[in-house]
Design brief:
single chain, Rossmann fold, 2 domains, six-stranded parallel β-sheet, 16% strand
């Protein structure tokens, strides 16, 4: 993969695809600027190397055409604060102002972006002399701003994309042993490829979250009113017999998905009718934390339960604290796991916090990321 070390940017206009798909509150204020912060090393290096100007491409949300609720204005303003320089916002590709740093408005406002339209990619390319992709969170999408334009200009990966790919690839190719994968979340079908990849390469795979219930159902256990993906039962049955795969042995259940519901600790995994399993139990949390403490490398994607509800946060918190305390190489695959670490104040206590949940999982599965392949 070509990197900034392979690209001459002095005196040139640099088109940079960044991932500024940040969360906003009801007043359109950014609630978490981590993705903007993550792009700063690349943007600063390009300026230090003498780039004539930076033109930034990014998306926000999934707008249906041009919708000002999805404007990148908040991101442009925040980037200006962080860079200490003016960042102008170009409303469209035909009205790009002069300036050292210019952000093009949400690329998903433009017809053909998500279809990787060749003419749109050519319009992007006409703005600059070279192209840098630093948007790992969008690298698994073959869009005009992530894949199409990379073939039309001298191109390379930014530092964030480079670090994400090298860190995640190292987990599969040469991890410190033991390699422990902690996989949670809601659906087995969303992560069956990841589970299969880790069952081949890891020393143990620890399962949590609602995705444990298809495994339990496949074994004949009662799941009560728990969230149990029916389409996941058969895939769970196929991999459930692997000796590397570990399931919860106790659970915390609630009458309803609410913070003020009745709570019941289950000594086992059969969930009574009228109850739903919402967290791993204390015994499972202790066992998972011990496995993390003894690991050489740990990859974590997906919470152990409904951590956003106080009565069901203990399992996810135990994993997060174990990740923060271990001497292992710790990698978080983005998404809700990253949100949990931030909720517990532990985000700065892990080795690598991925900015791309979907992209990180596809890379772990062994899939080719179009945005990365275009830079090789």
């Amino acid at each position: 993969m070509r990197t900034l070390d392979d690209l001459d940017v002095e005196g040139k206009r640099v088109l940079v695809r960044v991932d500024f798909n940040v969360p906003l509150d009801e007043d359109y204020r950014i609630t978490d600027d981590a993705r903007i912060q993550a792009a700063l090393p690349t943007l600063r290096e390009l300026r230090e190397k003498g780039a004539a100007r930076l033109l930034l491409l990014a998306h926000l949300g999934r707008p249906k055409g041009r919708d000002e609720k999805f404007s990148l204005r908040p991101a442009a303003d925040r980037l200006a604060e962080l860079l200490g320089t003016e960042v102008q916002l170009a409303p469209n590709l035909d009205d790009v102002p002069d300036g050292d740093v210019v952000m093009i408005e949400n690329v998903r406002f433009f017809d053909g972006e998500t279809k990787n339209d060749a003419q749109l990619a050519e319009r992007y390319a006409a703005l600059a002399d070279v192209y840098v992709n630093d948007a790992f969170g969008a690298a698994h999408r073959a869009h005009a701003s992530t894949e199409g334009v990379a073939h039309l200009l001298p191109s390379a990966a930014g530092r964030l994309l480079e670090r994400e790919v090298s860190t995640l690839s190292a987990i599969l190719e040469d991890p410190r042993r033991p390699l422990v994968a902690v996989v949670g979340g809601a659906k087995v079908t969303d992560k069956i490829g990841v589970l299969e990849a880790f069952l081949q390469r890891a020393d143990s795979v620890l399962i949590g979250g609602a995705m444990c219930f298809p495994f339990f159902k496949a074994e004949g256990h009662d799941v009560g009113d728990s969230l149990c993906e029916e389409e996941g039962v058969e895939p769970a049955r196929k991999v459930g017999g692997d000796e590397k795969l570990e399931l919860p042995t106790d659970l915390v259940a609630g009458r309803a998905f609410a913070a003020d519901t009745d709570v019941r600790e289950l000594d086992g995994v059969d969930v009574p009718d009228g109850w739903m399993g919402l967290d791993i139990g204390a015994g499972t949390a202790e066992r998972y934390a011990a496995a993390i403490a003894q690991a050489g490398t740990v990859f974590w994607n997906g919470p152990m339960g409904a951590f956003e509800l106080a009565p069901f946060a203990a399992g996810t918190k135990a994993v997060a604290e174990a990740m923060a305390a271990t001497d292992a190489t710790t990698v978080i695959g983005g998404g809700d796991s990253a949100a949990a670490l931030k909720q517990f104040g532990l985000a700065d206590r892990v080795a690598h916090l991925s900015t791309g949940g979907g992209a990180s999982l596809e890379l772990i599965e062994g899939k080719e990321l179009p945005g990365v392949k275009a830079l090789t």
